[in-house]
Amino acid sequence: MTQLVxxxxxxxxxxxxxxxxxxxxxGLAHGSQIQPLDPQPGQAVTISLFANAAKAIERVAxxxxxxxTEPEGEGGVATRGSVLCAELLEQQSYNAETGHTTRVWQARxxxxxxxxxxxxxxxxxxxxxxxxxxxxxPVTVSxxxxxxxxxxxxxxxxxxWWHDAVVYQIFVDRFNAAHDEAPLHSxxxxxxxxxxxxTLRGIIEKLDYIQSLGINCLWLSPLFESPSHHGxxxxxxxxxxxxxxxDEILQQLIQEAHRRDMHVLLDFVANHTSDxxxxxxxxxxxxxxxxxxxxxxxxxDAPHTxxxxxxxxxxxxxxxxxxxxxxxxxxxxxxxxxxxxxxxxRLDYVPGPSHAFWTSxxxxxxxxxxxxxxxxxxxxxxxxIVDYAGRMDGFMDFPLSAMxxxxxxxxxxxxxxxxxxxxxxxxxxxxxMISAVVVDNHDMHRFLWLADGQRERLKLATAFxxxxxxxPIVYYGTEVGLSQTDDAHKENAYCRAPMxxxxxxxxxxxxxxxxxxxxRHQHRVLRSGKRQQVFVENVENxxxxxxxxxxxxxxxxxxxxxxxxxxxxxxxxRIQIHExxxxxxxxxxxxxxxxxxxxxxxxxxxxxxKDGCIExxxxxxxxxxxxxxx
Length: 630
Description:
Blueprint: H1 15-26, E1 28-29, E2 34-35, E3 45-52, E4 59-65, E5 72-74, E6 77-80, E7 82-85, E8 87-95, E9 100-109, E10 117-125, E11 130-132, E12 149-152, E13 167-170, H2 200-204, H3 207-212, E14 217-220, H4 247-259, E15 263-269, H5 278-285, H6 323-340, E16 344-348, H7 355-368, E17 373-376, H8 382-385, E18 394-396, H9 398-409, H10 415-428, E19 434-438, H11 447-450, H12 455-466, E20 471-475, H13 507-522, H14 525-528, E21 530-534, E22 537-538, E23 548-554, E24 559-565, E25 571-575, H15 577-583, E26 595-597, E27 605-607, E28 614-618, E29 622-628
Parallel strand pairs: 13-14, 13-20, 14-15, 15-16, 16-17, 17-18, 18-19, 19-20
Antiparallel strand pairs: 1-3, 2-3, 3-9, 4-7, 4-10, 5-6, 8-9, 10-11, 10-12, 21-23, 22-25, 23-24, 24-29, 25-28, 26-27, 26-29
C-alpha cells in the first residue's frame, strides 16, 4: 500500500496563530495571553499585549469589570469598570510566523475572590490614532470595538470520576438499530455520507456488550436534529433527531447507563448551526429579523452571503460573542445536563468561539454541578491548548495521538522518539487540565487503515494507550478490527463505517481489549501512578534498540512496569529493577521486586529477580505489563 498521509494532523496554520498574526498586523493583539493560565483566589493576573512596532502606539490600557458586565473605556478612561495603564517592557521581539516585530505591554489585574468573573478589553493610542486589541478576526466574526476577554477565579477541578473512566465513542448513525427496527445499512446499500439507520434504542440494546468491554463512560456523537449524517450542524438544540428516537429515549438511555455506573458525554457544537436552524432561516430571509445578529451576513454578491464553518454553506457560523447567542447556547447546555441527565459535554471545534465565550460556558455548566465534565476538541499545538486551562476541564490529546500514530501505525518515528516526546509533553500540561488519549476517532483514518491492516500494531498502540496517564477513549469498532473501505482523505466519512457485529468481529482483538481495560480498572497505578521512562538493555536485538523501550508507573504502594517491542523481530530485554526502584525512591518494602506478568500470562507468572535484574522476552510488535505484588 502507498504510504498514507495522516490528514487530520497535516501542518496548517492554527486558529490562534491566524488570529494573532491578523491582530498584530492591525496594530494591537492580546490573544488571551495571561499568567497564571488558570487563576485561583488570591492570585493577581498579568495581561500581556503585543503591539506592532511599526505602529505609533504610545500608550496601552486595560479596562476590566468583576461583576460580569461588559467593560467599557477608551484612551485610558473607563466608562464602565476600572482601568489599568499597561507598562511597556524593554524588549522587542521578531515573530517569524507573523512577520512582525512587536513590543510587549503588560498590566496586572489585582487578585480576586473565589467565584469572580473578570471581563476585560484593551486599547492603544497615540495623540492622533487609536487601536482596539484583537479588533480583527480571520477565524470568526470580528468585533469592531475589539474583543472582550474573560477569566474566572475558582478552585474548579475535573470531576474525580473522569480519572477512572474508559470512554467508548459511539457514532450514533453507524452503531446499531434495535431488534424491531430496520437493520443497519451497509456500504453496499448506502453512500458513505447517507444515513445508515443507527438509533438510541439500538445503543440501549448493546449496553451489555459495551459494559462487558469494561467501558464506564459513553461519548455520543451529536444526536439532536440535523440534516447531516454526522450531526455537527444542529438544526435544533433541544430535541433528539427523529431518526434516532425521541427525547424520552435519550433520557432512558442515560438512565440505563447510570444504572450500570456509566457516565454519558454528549457532543456540543457551539460554533455553527445548520442552514435549517430556525434562527438562520429567519435571519437569512429577513434583514430585520430578531436573529439578524446571530450570524455574519455580508454585502457581497455571492451564492452564500454569510460566514460559514470551513466555507461549507450548510454550516453557517454563529456570532458567539453576541449576548443573545451566548445565552441561547448556555441555556442549551444547561438543558442537556438538567433535563436529559448528561454527565458532561465534549466541546466541538473549541478554537472557533472566543476564550471569553468558553470562560462563561464553563461557569454555566459548573453552576449545574461540579461533577459535570467539559473536554474540548482543540487541534492546535500545545502552547495554544494550555491557554484553555480554566475554560474547560481538559482536552483531547491530539499532539500525543499524532506521535502515537506515527510510531505504531505509520512507523515513521521510533518508539524511543515517542517516549522522549512523552516525557517533554507531559510537563507541558497544566496541573488543572486533564487529557484524553486517542488512538483514532471520527475525523481521522481508522488506525488499522493507517497501519495497513496489521492487527499487532493496533494491539501495541492500545497497550500503550491503556497504560498511560490520561483517560483512554476507544472509538467504536476499533476493538473488533473495524477499518474502512477507502481513504478518509477523500471523504472522512469512510472512517465512520457501520459497526461490526456477530461473526464479523475479530474475537482475538476483542479479548485483548477486554484484558487491557480490565487491567487498567484492577490496578489504580495504571490510572493515577507517576510515570518515568526506564533504561532497557536489549540483549539480543541491538540493531532495533530504538524500537524497544519501557516505562514504570508507580505509587507509594505499588508499581507497574510496561515494556514495548515496536520491532518486527523478537526481543529479549534486561532491566535493572533494584537500581530503578532506588532511583525513583520507591518505598514499597522488601517484597517490592515481586513482579508478575499480567498481560500475556493471565496466570500471573512471576518474573525471577537475579542480581537485581529481571529478564523478559517479547514477541515482535508486542507489549508486556508487569505488576508488583506485596
